Amino acid sequence: MIPRARHFVAAALSSALLIVPAFTGIAHATSAATSASDSKVYAVPLAKTLADVKRVADYWRPDRLQKTDLSTPATPGSGAAASTTSSGAAAGPAAPAASAASAASVKRTASTAGVSPTLPRKGTAANTMGKVFFRFGDKEYWCSASAVSAKNRSVVATAGHCAYDSRTAKPADYWIFVPNPGPGGSAPDGIYVGASISLHEDWSGKGDYDFDYAFVTVHRGFTWVAKDGAYVMQDVGRLQDNVGGLGLELNKKPGTYAVTAFGYPAGQQPDGSHPYDGKTLQKCRPGATRYTVAPGRDLQKGVELTPCDFSPGASGGPWVISYDETRRLGSLAGVNSLTWNRDAKGRYDSVSAPYFDTVTGEVYRRAASLGTIPNVT
Fold first, then answer.
1. Where is this region: Disordered (predicted)?
2. Any bridge partners for residue 14, and if so which?
3. Which terminus of the chain faces fewer neighbouring Cβ atoms within 10 Å, N or C?
4. How many CB atoms lie within 10 A of CB 256?
């Protein structure tokens, strides 16, 4: 239902947090802050062993991947969207204040603020963007995501709600990243099983949309190869070596830069239409950014891009500064989190992301520091 004039709808781009399935998840998933200095980082293991990797891989065999083109993320119910008044949503804060932990770690994270984009080992253009597929309980979902340049060459950025359900305090299961997905469920650049989620404790603890982001460390990739009438896994190496990685920008003041948002939207628009099918990477043209808030989502320091008519499915897709169309590279400055219907008409008209600050750099740095299994086959 479209709200009355002078009100907006801020709705989650994916239904993963808005539908309440019966969760089974990963048994005994543990998590802990990495150290006292990294106290805002919440770390959750996914597939830890080779047996875990093969369990996830076996779930996403070619016959199941072929069906993912037919799936679309469910649309949030009308009662799930958070309505905010025009004055509240339009104004936004003057500037996000750094927390004590953030201020104390500025010096340590200076290098993360300057992470540069990286081309793949072979080729002159990157393929960093793609989809993540996963389960919460017995229900399958998918979101958008991107590879980020890192020293372990194995980091994926997406929305927090595309990796961890804060309501049940459980991570996604059977989590994989497929960069540059092709038709019919093909994965020309490999399939990468999630090894560990790094996120902000305020997402895992209370679902605060100021921290709706996750950096997922992934294992080496594989492809399915037909052999003797069956499919077998073939190791294809590390993510960044194969597809490249976006750079990372932190503490960028909204209004001082233009950003291009990417994703695979597929969900329903407010008027019931489905202009996107989720099969093709879409982008909203480069536009200016500004601060925004959504009290119903605990969003106090969001960043909004207008115009952009993304719908569910685009969650987790990257916001890229200085995007180079030829090299298909730029620097990550946010991820799609909420979509907005500010004019209360038939289509969404803007999208917002959590503000990437110094603590975001701490979360990223943790994901970039982890090692993974040397061979997945």
1. 67-88
2. none
3. N
4. 8
